[in-house]
Amino acid sequence: NGLAFQWVVRDGLNEFYSVLSRNMRELGSPGHGVNWFKSVVKHYGEAARIGLVYKGSKAVGCGLLLCGTKTVAIPWASTLRDYNSLNPNMLLYWNILKFSIENNYKEFNFGRSTPGEGTYKFKKQWGATERTLYTHSFKHKPCQVKSTGSIVQGRKTLAAIWSKLPLPVANALGPMLRKYISL
After folding, report:
1. Among 67, 53, 56, which Cα is nearest to 18's?
2. 31 burial via Cβ count (<10 Å: 0-12, 13-18, 19+)
3. d(CA 8, CA 16)
4. Residue 108 in 3-state DSSP?
5. In this structure, are residues 171 and 30 in contact, taking their beta carbons and an 8 Å threshold?
């Protein structure tokens, strides 16, 4: 299918961000700014790795790995929708899992997913086992939600609007809004 995989670190950050930010915008979700990822890579040093999938000279898939002493996690991964028929995500994860095994990591953390959703099914096909993720939040004052249906519809509407923004606008506004989003 003409896809190729390559490991990069700092040299590939702009290509990584190009793929990730476009995909996040198309999903209707504000993303972190490129400076966020520069900081992550800087602070993790050699424990941060970026994998890129190319179609010719164009990056069409990306993943940022964070390596611990026993575990590898992939908190950010994306592919460009225009190339999904070529399955760049399969090549990406194959190489990431291969890296994890070859470097004797005991666990690979695929990250969180909503049961039944596409990303959940994708991770299960690789043999991922489900673990409950417990979260806690502390509110300054009690908050009551009267209609979750209207909140869900509001999120869908905002996501639809966000997905239509020009990419430079989404990339400029996203980091300012991202700090208010828990997902």
Report:
1. 53
2. buried
3. 9
4. strand
5. no
**37, amino acid identity:** F
CA atoms within 13 A on the CB side of 164: 5
Dihedral of the CA atoms 38, 11, 30, 169 (nearest 10)?
Answer: 110
Q: What is the pLDDT of residues 134-182, one digit of tens each?
A: 777 766 665 555 555 666 677 788 888 888 888 888 888 888 888 777 6
- Give per-residue burial for 70-101: e unless 16+ CB within 10 Å, then b: eebbbebbbbbeebeebbbbbbbbebbbebbe
- Would you say 154 and 11 are in contact if contact means Cβ atoms under 8 Å apart? no
Q: What is the DSSP string of 38-69?
A: HHHHHHHGGGEEEEEEEETTEEEEEEEEEE-S
- In angstroms, the CA 174 to CA 180 distance is 10
CA distance 125 to 131: 16
Q: From CA 26, how far away is CA 44, in angstroms rounded? A: 28
φ, ψ of residue 110 to 5 degrees: the values are: -75, -15
User: Does the model's pTM come out above 0.85?
Assistant: no
